[in-house]
Every structure is written in structure tokens, then in C-alpha cells.
Amino acid sequence: MNSTQKIKFDGIYNQYNRRCFVHPDPLEFLYSYKDIRDREIAGLIASALAYGRVAQILKSVSSVLDVMNESPYLFLQNSDEKFLLQNFKQFKYRFADGKNLAALLIGVKNIIDRFGSLNKCFISGLLPDHENIFFAMTSFVNKITASGNNPGHLVAIPKKGSACKRMNLFLRWMVRKDRVDPGGWKGIDKSKLIVPIDTHMHKIGSIFGFTSRKQADIKTAFEITEGFKIFSPKDPVKYDFALTRFGIRDDIDINSLFL
């Protein structure tokens, strides 16, 4: 282990892993929900829409959660497919429309009706000998899209090789608990989480020698995760929030990370 790198990573974590640095980040929506039944639904929606310009992401997530009122869980409990299609028929965000959003919510509702929660559904696909959450994530996505539901771009398909950045981001939010990540899910070891890979994290992983791959796919995500395990074996996603502030906030320069 390079002790200098660990000191650098820990210093960045201690400095930036604070709620005052969350905005603008869709993670901020989760803080409004104390009930984990609401938080997991809001988190899945917020992460599913976490692509594109951050201002538009926040606007889009807010427009959906506003319709669902104070409790996304109760909203879905009292909804059916026709109701969801009607309420979100005007929704449009880049590659996704109201039908895609309704399909995602129908998938969520079906999972909760069957398993009781998204958390229990995810755990059902996680075995003790799994090295990470990849297979459980695959099972979880399959259940969301069961019965012909088509969320489209809102849900990445792990078996197609996608890095599944947004789903891994959702899992970081729900499994980890610290000053930033609100947590709430049980039964998942955070050591099995996969680093959410975007352009900025891919660059960081390349610079620190965690990967030489040019494509930000699931194999790259595995390699970068293994790289961070050198410094934090029990919590490889620990540094994700702090490091990605360099790509989200205008007042933090990513080049200063490597000085």
C-alpha cells in the first residue's frame, strides 16, 4: 500500500464527505424521508434520473417526488398502472418519458407487493459466496423489468456490460451510513459494493493506476473497486462521494487532487 496515497484519500474524505458539500447532488432528496420505505423508493428514482446536467437532474427528480407527495410508499400502494401512466404522462427527461417512468414505478410496486421492500428483494439475490453485489444487482434489475416492464434508459442492464453507475450509486446511498450517505438497508456488507463509475472516477482510477482500461464499463468498475480496497478493504466505496465533488462542484478543481 502507498501510505502517501492513503493519507491523500483519507484527507479528501475528511474534508469533503460532509453534507455542506452535497448540493447539487440528487442524494439530497433522500434526507427528506425518515421512513426507509419512502427513502428507498425516492433513492431509486433519484439515482435512475442521475444523468445529464445536474440542474436538470434535480428539477426532474423534484417533479416526480412532488407528485408522490410526502410518502412515495403510500403513493405506490394506492396506485395502479393506469393511474401512474395518467399522472406521469407529461413527464419527459432526455431519453425517458412518462411510460418509462411508469414502468419503473410499476416494477417497484410489484417488488414491494411480493417482497415487502426493495431491500428484501435485493437480498434475495445475494448469496454469502458472492464476491460483490453484481449478481444480486442483476437479479434486482430483472425483477424490476419483469412482466414486460420497460423502464428504458432509467435502468441499466448489468449483464450487458454496463458499469451500472446509477444503480451502484443507489446502493451506496442505501447500504452505507456516514455523514453523507443516509443508509437504511440491512443485510448487505458494504465491502461488496461496487464503485459507481463516471468520467471523473474513471479518470481518478486511471491516474492512480487502478485501471488501464479505456472504456468505463463494469470490468473497469471492478478494477477500480479493487484498487480502492487496498486503502479501505471493508468499505471500498468510502471515498466515492468526496472524490466526485471534484466533478460536480464548480468551486473545487479536480486538478488540485493530483498536486
Description:
- The protein has helices at residues 3-16, 36-48, 54-67, 72-77, 81-87, 98-115, 118-124, 134-144, 165-175, 199-207, 218-229, 240-248, and strands at 92-93, 96-97.
- A two-stranded antiparallel sheet has the order 1-2.
- The protein has one domain (3-258).
- α7 (118-124) packs across α8.
- By secondary structure, the chain is mostly helical.
- The chain is built from twelve helices and two strands.
- The protein is 51% helix and 2% strand.
- The mean pLDDT is 94.
With helices defined by DSSP (H or I, 4 residues minimum), what is the helix count?
12
Whole-number count of domains:
1
First and last CA, distance: 20 Å
Shape, principal axes of CA atoms: globular
**Cα Rg:** 18 Å
Helix residue percentage: 40-55%
Strand segment count? 2
Tell me the β content: under 5%
